[in-house]
Write a structure and sequence with these properties.
By secondary structure, the protein is mainly α. It is built from 19 helices and three strands. Among the domains are: about 55 residues, Arc Repressor Mutant, subunit A (Orthogonal Bundle), CATH 1.10.10.60; about 200 residues, no CATH class. A three-stranded antiparallel β-sheet has the order 1-2-3. Helix 5 runs antiparallel to helix 13. It binds a DNA duplex (21 and 21 nucleotides) through helix 4 and helix 7. Keywords: Developmental protein, DNA-binding, Nucleus, Repeat, Transcription, Transcription regulation. One of its GO terms (biological process) is pollen development. One of its GO terms (cellular component) is nucleus.
Length: about 375
DNA sequence: AAGCTAGACAACCGCGTTCCG
DNA sequence: TCGGAACGCGGTTGTCTAGCT
């Protein structure tokens, strides 16, 4: 690619901006406004590329930028929009006043992606890792396990290579997820649920079809509308009562949006749409299908409002208590002790080993069945 | 105190799109 | 219609800093 003329000069400065440079930029913009960035360095007396000037202005010097850290509401909106339209940072940033696409992108890369991974959700597809691996396992001609893991995206790779248990269930509410994050668990990665885009935004970045660009913009706008509306209510998306495990998100015309995009009812809110972690792994090819009572003990149950270990339901740690605790924190980061939520997994170690053993068994089965394919010299 | 590491964020790079003569 | 310049975007890299050993 041909470099812009302004960037060809050998004496163009790179790296961090000094206060003096910032002052020059501010002085220039306050006098002349923005635009024609290639001319800015010369007019402003800066040894910078015009592109660099534009970035410095839009990402740092603009007076309307927020400096404070992201709020849980902003966090939620980012995740919802990312689930709906993918990494279209500029579009997402437009829904967050005072935030730049760079801000949002950095926040996603440093915080949210990791957070979702720790919750057992693939940040790329917003599907549970277990579901992805199950899907992945259905693809024929699989290479050896290590290479197979190597071909996963980096988030799943991290989940595999840095954790004793490959598919950690979400942490419990007591371990520190806010109500907002709990709701995210149910709206983004609820059991058996197809991701939002699979059902409603077929032209998203994941399922993109090259001939569908005209529909893509509409889908994105609809996605933004729905996501922002849902967030403006209570953070809940419409939940179809007929399909408790298939959360539907209404896409509607403006005339019907007030009714179709409503939040859940108060009763639903109170009772929560409880489902178990077993449901979450329902499609996991590696889990034994017949659950014994012993296995039942390790099932974690969580609702749309809080995540409650089922086996702990009688120990006085009621859902309401947890909810109250979160309320004490104004619904913001109900993390006792602060910090990043732990991976807190209440299952016993034997449970973990049985889970892993099931995986290994499955893998060995495939190896024996497709032994010839495993000799692929590419691996 | 020095070295190391991870996290946060600023900045750069390359590419696609839009604008304009 | 075409080609070059400008702009915008997303991915990646670089730098700084705080915390830990």
């Amino acid at each position: 690619m041909v470099r812009p003329p302004c960037c060809d000069k050998l004496n163009v400065k790179k790296g961090l901006w000094s206060e003096e440079e910032d002052a020059k930029m501010l002085a220039y913009v306050s006098k002349h406004g923005t635009g024609n960035w290639t001319a800015v360095p010369k007019k402003a007396g800066l040894r910078r590329c015009g592109k660099s000037c534009r970035l410095r202005w839009t990402n740092y010097l603009r007076p309307d930028l927020k400096r404070e850290s992201f709020t849980p509401q902003e966090e939620e909106l980012i995740i919802r929009l990312h689930a709906a339209i993918g990494s279209r940072w500029s579009i997402i940033a437009q829904q967050l006043p005072g935030r730049t696409d760079n801000d949002v992108k950095n926040y996603w890369n440093t915080k949210l992606r990791k957070k979702l991974s720790e919750m057992g959700i693939d940040p790329v597809t917003h599907k549970p890792f277990s579901q992805i691996l199950a899907d992945y396992g259905n693809i024929g001609g699989l290479p050896k396990s290590r290479a197979r893991i190597g071909s996963l995206n980096r988030d799943m790779k991290n989940a595999f290579l840095t954790r004793p248990e490959p598919f950690p269930p979400p942490a419990t509410a007591a371990e520190g997820f806010s109500n907002i994050n709990n709701r995210l668990m149910t709206t983004i990665a609820s059991p058996g649920m197809e991701p939002i885009q699979d059902n409603f935004f077929p032209n998203n970045s994941i399922n993109h079809h090259p001939d569908s660009d005209s529909l893509e913009l509409l889908s994105q706008l609809q996605a933004i509308k729905v996501v922002t509306e849902a967030t403006n209510y209570t953070g809940h998306q419409t939940i179809s009562p007929q399909f408790p495990n298939k959360y539907s998100l209404s896409l509607s015309s403006p005339s019907s949006s007030s009714t179709s995009s409503t939040c859940s009812t108060a009763a639903q809110e109170k009772s929560g749409l409880a489902f178990s972690w077993r449901d979450f792994l329902l499609e996991d090819a590696f889990l034994p299908t017949d659950h014994t009572q012993g296995q039942e003990d390790r099932i974690l149950e969580f609702s749309s409002d809080e995540i409650v270990p089922q086996s702990h339901s009688s120990n006085g740690t009621s859902a309401e208590n947890i909810d109250n605790n979160n309320s004490d924190n104004n619904g913001v980061q109900g993390i006792s002790g602060g910090g990043v939520p732990s991976h807190g997994f209440h299952a016993s170690s034997s449970t973990n080993s049985s889970f892993v053993a099931a995986m290994i068994d499955q893998e060995n089965e495939m190896f024996s069945e497709f032994a010839n394919l495993l000799e692929d010299p590419c691996y």
